[in-house]
């Protein structure tokens, strides 16, 4: 097959050279209005085309590459005194896979234990390209399934306005859970 970026022959959808050249993550930080920190690995504009594959079969491979370059590396370097869990936002299976579950799975380490199917949206409205007002007027209405752990890392693919993360954090706080911080693949505000 050919690399999606340089069109060289490659055994991977994005060759190792292009991964190194174009997909080396950096750490971007922002704070939500509730004080929770959000750490992102890419600027949205840098990987926009790749992100648009998420609802296709190709997206499965692209999200795995991006997750290995960022979330896996983060998990390898992350240390804490006690194990915490990671929880993906709405990891329901659409298009044959869940892009947020891929990210969450790549956080597994001796300090981070990913949990699945615990935070699901009951409103499936698309936020893509929508305004902050639209997002705030159409909440995800998350349903939280019970789990024992108290402290967690919240995972999503893109942070735009922060409305989705803030809504999820509010639900988790009501259930007496502590969100240590959020991890996202990319941040739109750092474009």
List keywords for this structure.
single chain, 191 residues, alpha/beta, Rossmann fold, six-stranded mixed beta sheet, two-stranded antiparallel sheet, 6 helices, 24% strand
Summarize the helices and strands and which ones pair or pack:
Layout: H1 16-22, E1 28-31, E2 37-43, H2 44-51, H3 57-77, E3 84-88, H4 99-105, E4 112-115, E5 119-121, H5 132-137, E6 142-144, E7 151-159, H6 163-174, E8 178-187
Parallel strand pairs: 2-8, 3-4, 3-7, 7-8
Antiparallel strand pairs: 1-2, 5-6
Helix pairs in contact: 3-4
Explain this structure.
- With 191 residues, the chain is α/β, with parallel strands linked by helices.
- The protein has one domain (24-190): Rossmann fold.
- The chain has 6 helices and 8 strands, in the order αββααβαββαββαβ.
- It has helices spanning 16-22, 44-51, 57-77, 99-105, 132-137, 163-174, and strands at 28-31, 37-43, 84-88, 112-115, 119-121, 142-144, 151-159, 178-187.
- Strands 1-2-8-7-3-4 form a 6-stranded mixed beta sheet, with helices on both faces. Strands 5-6 form a two-stranded antiparallel sheet.
- Helix 3 (57-77) runs parallel beside helix 4.
- The radius of gyration is 16 Å and the shape is globular.
- The two termini are 31 Å apart.
